[in-house]
Structure of FMN-binding domain protein:
Amino acid sequence: MIKKIPKLQIIRHITQIIFLIFIPELFTLVFSQLKEIYSMIVKGNFNIGEAWPHLIGAIIIMTLTIILGRFFCGWFCTFGAVNDFIYLVSHKLFKIKFRVNEEIDSKLKYIKYVVLLFIAAVIWTSGSSYFDSYSPWNAFAGMDNISGAVVQYTAGFIILAFIAIGAIFIERFFCRYLCPLGAVFSVLSKLRIFKISKPTDECGNCRLCTNNCSMGIGLYKMEKVSSGECINCFKCIEVCHRKNPQASILNERVNPLFPSAVAIAAFTGLNSLGSVMSKNNSAAHVGSTNNISADNNSSKEDKYKDGTYTGIGHGKNPDLKVSVTIKDGKIASVEIVSANEPKGKEAFSVVPKEIIGSQSTSVDAVTGATLTSKGIMEAVNDALKQAKISNVSTDSSSKENKYKDGTYTGIGHGKNPDLKVSVTVKDSKIASVEIVSANEPKGKEPINVIPKEIIAAQTTSVDAVTGATLTSKGIMMAVNDALSKAQK
Ligand code: SF4
Ligand code: SF4
């Protein structure tokens, strides 16, 4: 008998490949937007009207998940697709077969909620960047510069390797047990109107649907799949010879291609609309700042009070402490007071000299010691904040009337040097932040998000975008530099 080609799986895998090629950062993008929504809610300043244009990805995906279920997971997500393809190769090519006991599987699925709770309660709430190097998403996102990324995210790569090995043996290993985003979607999708129905009285004893379910759901004992674990992959529908499992919306049978097409159209259509809205916002801002002067060199002019200041940064480990001396308004010396940096020796001697030589903290990181180099720059920046007459602050009482109106240019150092911004101050407030030039391969998301956050909070102390920490920090550094020229 000729085996029927699973049409839906071919369409699904083609969709996954398209998303993988064109929006490889989709997982990190949605996850970082979720973090922003969480932060806004925790801080009590969530405003859907303001948040909509730059949080559109997460908002669309969450709405879609509530109505139609986890199409994001089954069809769009980069991480999910990679899990699928690893398993497909191991299963079809190397015939690796491994089944997790149903009871153990259902218990292991709770781990992802613990991961989510830990990330939200410990990492997001504290705003700590300590765990950045442990992030498998940062490691995954840094694959375009693998040698640098391996050094910077060693722990993240180890976790990534563990996930890849897991995916060889267990289909959707990461999605089933570890994914914090999957945990959110699992809860949200409980409310969906689109479900798989599977009348048990029409079933045989084959359990083909259960044995082929990507997420290990025990379909054999259900009339309808209400589980939040279902990712709408439709393997159960295609594998059944009796055509027993069927897609249904509000109990009415539908062709599964219909909700799939709706999900793809809704996501791509609304996402494009969001991009246009963001671009229009940016264009409006550019128009408002073009005719105002810019100043590139004054960051090297005298702008600090003489004295010695201590600053703290985070290199490979926290609490990297420096002492910065200002003489005649210039950075005269940078001393490393204490640091727990195993590979820091070269960075300790090179980076302070570069900072003094260029009178800027936007210097090149030492190869092989990127985190330590950045930690030193961060600590020196921290010290210099105190040396400035005043700086951007989270204290609302000091947000008023401290900048001269005008447009100022600032330089920062993200993943690469020379990240240039133009900041417009109006009525003593940060009115716009434009990225003038940046050589940041994965900078799209922070370039959209960070300027808006800075304007909304009137401070450069905002949360970095997950998976693009360096670019986010570079933008904040550049805005700080520009604002130092706007001081009254
Ligand atoms: S569970 Fe997580 S990794 Fe898996 S597809 Fe969903 S969002 Fe992506
Ligand atoms: S129940 Fe069906 S559609 Fe849902 S995950 Fe399992 S195989 Fe895929």
Observations:
- Residues 278-302, 390-401 have pLDDT under 50 and may be disordered.
- The two ends are 83 Å apart (CA to CA).
